[in-house]
Amino acid sequence: MSFAFQFEAIALPPEAQALRREVRAFLRDDPAIRTQRATWGRYDKAFTQRLGQRGWLGMTWPKAYGGHERTYLERFVVLEELLAAGAPVGAHWVTDRQVGPMLLRFGTEAQRQSLLPRMVRGECQFCIGMSEPDTGSDLASVRTRATRVAGGWTVNGTKLWTSNAHRADYMILFCRSGAADADNRHAGASQFIVDLVSPGITIRPVLNVLGNHDFNEVVFRDVFVPDESLIGEDGQGWRQVMGELGFERSGPDRFLSSYILMRELVRTFETSDRPEVRRAVGRLTAHLWTLRQMSLSLTGLLQRNASLDVEAALVKDLGSVFEQEIPEIARTLVDIEPTTDDAGQFSGLLGLSLLTAPSYSIRGGAREVLRNIIARGLGLR
């Protein structure tokens, strides 16, 4: 088996560069940015709705569903600027990045008509129910089960590490709906749109190392899900999830999580002639530029609706390593005690980044899983 990575050089068109200036001007004046912190995952529904008013949600989606039919490259520019500013994009990120495109590809017309226009306005939030206790990133080991009943399905099981489930309106639930084939662990899985106010759902907080409530355990006990909530066809869940993860793993959010700390590190040593500083900053800058070019190239593939499972896994894996390196390098170069008291200061940016960085190699797929995908793609296993 032969495989060649697809990383073609991509140049941003003039309309994308003009859009960048427009987004920067918006962010300079928006009140949410004046209270920025080191990470971009903060949840601010009002900010999300302001983006919707500017036409920066559902940018590539058809106008028939409220979208704007702009290019993936224009969307890439908006994402870069939001991430670089530390904008609070948590209320729409998953919804805009992967739920909408997945429904456009696999959803029913009724699902599209009902949900996509609300997503574009920032009025409808989703979370993703993939990970489970004792399974981690091994989605083929999913145990949450949907059983057929009159008019729909009954769901039982537990999802874990579900970001923003306590704030979302709906979950995209990945679960077992049939028997797995002995030769194909990926068979017998489906995806459903689950209303999170449905009877039988319990959402329990899982606090992170900072004491913040972003993650959740979501327990399903005899939860009824109507037939019209099935996404696509019964048993096609694995194919759908792999398409979603291509969107999740290929974007600039996979290497810009620590960008604000890197920016402040460069500013701190702007006039320094210390050799170790010049080497470290030069190395980080080269890695950032390379990852950006790789991600931009995959954005071009998305524009052509090409498959990018292996390339996206590679970008996500390399991006996680880079994001975790930044706070470690900053800690060795700057003689300062990390804190979390004031993230607007360098000490706070460093402290928050150090405590957040371990999650980067887990979210979107653990490192071991990603490297297995890459190895299979290269025919090495």
What can you see in these coordinates?
The protein has helices at residues 14-29, 45-54, 72-84, 93-106, 109-120, 237-250, 259-268, 275-303, 309-333, 346-356, 367-377; strands at residues 126-129, 145-149, 152-159, 170-176, 189-195, 201-207, 213-226. By secondary structure, the protein is an alpha+beta fold. Strands 2-3-7-6 form a 4-stranded antiparallel sheet, with no helix packed on it. Strand 2 (145-149) and strand 3 (152-159) form a beta hairpin. Helix 4 (93-106) crosses helix 6 and helix 7 (259-268) packs parallel to helix 9. The mean pLDDT is 91.
Following the backbone from N to C, one meets helices and strands in this order, namely HHHHHEEEEEEEHHHHHH
Radius of gyration: 21 Å
Strand order of the largest sheet: 2-3-7-6
Q: Kindly name the structural category.
A: alpha+beta
Work out the strand percent.
5-15%
Q: Roughly how many Å apart are the termini?
A: 11 Å
As a percent range, the share of helical residues equals: 40-55%
Main sheet specs: 4 strands, antiparallel
Weakly predicted, low-confidence segments: none
Number of strands: 7
Shape: globular
Mean pLDDT: 91
Any descriptors?
381 residues, four-stranded antiparallel sheet, three-stranded mixed sheet, alpha+beta, 14% strand
Write the layout of secondary structure elements.
Layout: H1 14-29, H2 45-54, H3 72-84, H4 93-106, H5 109-120, E1 126-129, E2 145-149, E3 152-159, E4 170-176, E5 189-195, E6 201-207, E7 213-226, H6 237-250, H7 259-268, H8 275-303, H9 309-333, H10 346-356, H11 367-377
Parallel strand pairs: 1-4
Antiparallel strand pairs: 2-3, 3-7, 4-5, 6-7
Helix pairs in contact: 1-3, 4-5, 4-6, 6-9, 7-9, 7-10, 8-9, 9-10, 9-11
